[in-house]
Amino acid sequence: MISHLSGQVKFKNDKSLTLDVNGVGYELKTSALILEKIKINEPKEFFTHLYVREDAMDLYGFESLDEKKFFELLIS
Fold first, then answer.
1. Is the dihedral of CA 36, 37, 38, 40 positive or negative?
2. Residue 12 contacts by C-beta under 8 Å, 6 or more apart in sequence?
3. pLDDT band at 10 (very low <50, low <70, confident <90, very high)
4. What region does 19 belong to: left with phi over 0, alpha with psi -120 to 50, or beta?
5. Which stretches does DSSP call E strand in the chain?
6. What is the Cα–Cα distance from 64 to 57, expressed in whole angstroms?
7. 8 A C-beta contact, residue 32 and residue 51
8. Are strands 16-21 and 43-52 parallel, antiparallel or unpaired?
9. pLDDT, tens only, 20-62
10. What gap in Å lies between CA 32 and CA 54, rounded to an integer?
């Protein structure tokens, strides 16, 4: 499982961002609040949760470990 990523924000839209980690871009789904305050080319780190379903794999990004734990509580 991917639990933490640190890199530079390369792109963002209204639902996700792309974090460049040593030349590999990871798409992270995250909250509108986080996306609103993030700037392109800004170094950031995220705690992550890889959500695997039969038809998709989504990587969610959180600024704190508490946010991640709360998300995991909600989906369990």
1. positive
2. 18, 35, 38, 40
3. very high
4. beta
5. 4-12, 16-21, 24-29, 43-52, 57-62
6. 21
7. no
8. unpaired
9. 999 999 999 999 999 999 999 999 999 999 999 899 999 999 9
10. 26
